[in-house]
Specification:
The protein has 248 residues and is of the alpha+beta class. The chain contains seven helices and seven strands, in the order H-H-E-H-E-H-E-E-H-H-E-E-E-H. The longest helix has 31 residues. The radius of gyration is 29 Å and the shape is extended. Bound molecules: 2-acetamido-2-deoxy-beta-D-glucopyranose (3 copies).
Length: 248
Amino acid sequence: MDKIEYSKVDSRLSGDSEEPLLTQRPSLKERIPFENILIAGLLCSNVLFLLLWVRVTTTDCVRPQLIYTPAKHAISYQTKRLFRHINHNVFTGKPRPEYEEAWRKLVEPIAIKVSNKELAKFGQNSIAFKDGSGYVVELQVYHELHCIKQIRRHLHLDYYNVTLSDYDKQFEERHIDHCLEYWREQAICRGDTTLTAMLWNVSLPVSHSYSDNECVDWEAIDTWARSRMVNMSDTSMLDESGPLPEDQ
Ligand SMILES: *[C@@H]1O[C@H](CO)[C@@H](O)[C@H](O)[C@H]1NC(C)=O
Ligand SMILES: *[C@@H]1O[C@H](CO)[C@@H](O)[C@H](O)[C@H]1NC(C)=O
Ligand SMILES: *[C@@H]1O[C@H](CO)[C@@H](O)[C@H](O)[C@H]1NC(C)=O
C-alpha cells in the first residue's frame, strides 16, 4: 500500500484556525479590495438570509418537515379542550346505526391520490393509476382511526353476528395486535408532552379527564383529504403491475 504523507498545512489557509483571517493585516493597498469583497459577500449573505427568513415565515411552516407530505399546506394549529366524553358521543359506546355511520364516514378518506411529482418528493413507490394521473397512498391519521374502529369492532363481535373460522379468528387476532402496535408506535412517535392537571377524588390523586391541547385544524385536513379521496371498493382503475412485496 502506498504511504500517504500528510504535511501540516498553514492553518490560516486550511480554515482550521479559529483566528480571523485578517489578524496579519495586509498593507492598505492590498486590504481595500479584499475588504470590499468581504463586505459585499457579507451583504449578499445577509440579503439571502433575509429572503429565506421571509420565505420561511410566510409559508405555513408548522412542522419540521423532516418527511415530505403534500398535506403540509392543510396543517394549521389551534388550541382545543379535549373532553373524552363517553356519554352522548356518537363514536363511543355500543355499536348502533348512528355509531356505524359516524365511524364509516370518519375513516372514509384513508386512501388518497397524489400526483407523480408529489410521489417523487415522497420518495417511495406506490400503486399507480392506469391513466397515469397519479398514485394511491394512505394518510396515516386515517389508518390510526381505522385501527381504533377495528378494535372497537373486536370488542363487539357478537353485535355483528360474526362467526369466525379458526383461520379468520387467527387473522382477526393478528389484525387487532397490529392495530394496537400501530397505535403504540404512533403515540411514541408524536410524543405529546401536553400536561394534564390532577385533583383529589376522595383520597385518590387522579388526572382530569379533559385537557387543553395543541391540535391540528381537523376540518382543514379532512377537507384536504376528501378532495383527493380514492374509493378503493373498485380497484379496476389501478395499475396491477406493481409494486410487489419483493420490490420494497
Ligand atoms: C344480528 O342478528 C340479529 C338477529 O338475527 C339481527 O336482529 C341484527 O340486526 C344482526 N346484526 C347485524 C349488525 O347485522
Ligand atoms: C371519583 O371516583 C368515583 C368513584 O370511583 C368515580 O365515580 C368518579 O368518576 C371519580 N371522579 C373523578 C373526577 O375522577
Ligand atoms: C365507493 O363505491 C361504492 C361502489 O362502487 C359505493 O357503494 C360507495 O358509496 C362509494 N363510496 C364513496 C365514499 O363514494
